[in-house]
UniProtKB/TrEMBL annotation:
Protein name as it appears in the record: Uncharacterized protein
Transmembrane as UniProt keyword: yes
Keywords for the protein's UniProt record, in alphabetical order: Membrane, Transmembrane, Transmembrane helix
Residue stretches spanning the membrane: 12-29, 49-68, 75-94
Domain of life of the native organism: Archaea
Length: 180
């Protein structure tokens, strides 16, 4: 991959990460404030606001950490991809387990919610696909996250800034073995 293509992919990945982080902060921050205001009255019924804020902050901190050489580009690509895959997996898990019904003893999530949101006994693939119709914003964010994962995986394998760092070490190993 040439450096121009890598720069374009980095820019697209940055936009995808910013969109994902902004959404998670937009959704999670006000809800976490409500739960913090009720601190001491028991376990919050929904852990997602705190997790959303943490994910948003970590995603926004990534470029800062790379620009000040705290984290290598290779580590940032791998870390961002893993965080976003984790976000997608957590979203699927949340919906496949009845919106957190596993967190509360004796609670059974209703089979349907607002806007045609229905779970019933669907398999996980059909459940995820149904959310693309019933929850278009969530679907758009998960698509953006999936696109970012694909870009980070591509950059991890083909970005000249990452592969050129690894090549001298590989060449040094080959030189040492040929000299002996």
């Amino acid at each position: 991959m040439d450096s121009r293509t890598a720069r374009i992919l980095r820019a697209v990945a940055a936009v995808f990460v910013f969109v994902t982080a902004a959404y998670h902060l937009w959704w999670g921050f006000p809800r976490s404030l409500v739960y913090l205001a009720a601190f001491g009255t028991g376990v919050p019924p929904d852990p997602r606001p705190f997790l959303f804020v943490a994910l948003g902050v970590i995603l926004l901190a990534g470029p800062y950490l790379v620009s000040f050489d705290v984290v290598s580009l290779r580590t940032a690509y791998a870390g961002a991809a893993l965080l976003l895959v984790g976000s997608i997996a957590a979203w699927v898990f949340w919906h496949a387990t009845g919106h957190g019904a596993f967190l509360v003893d004796g609670f059974s999530a209703p089979a349907s919610g607002g806007g045609g949101h229905h779970h019933g006994d669907q398999n996980t693939v059909l459940l995820v696909l149904s959310h693309y119709n019933t929850e278009p914003i969530e679907a758009a964010i998960k698509t953006v996250e999936l696109g970012a994962v694909a870009i980070f995986a591509t950059l991890l394998r083909t970005d000249p800034a990452v592969t050129s760092v690894a090549e001298p070490a590989a060449n040094a190993d080959q030189t040492e073995t040929t000299e002996t």
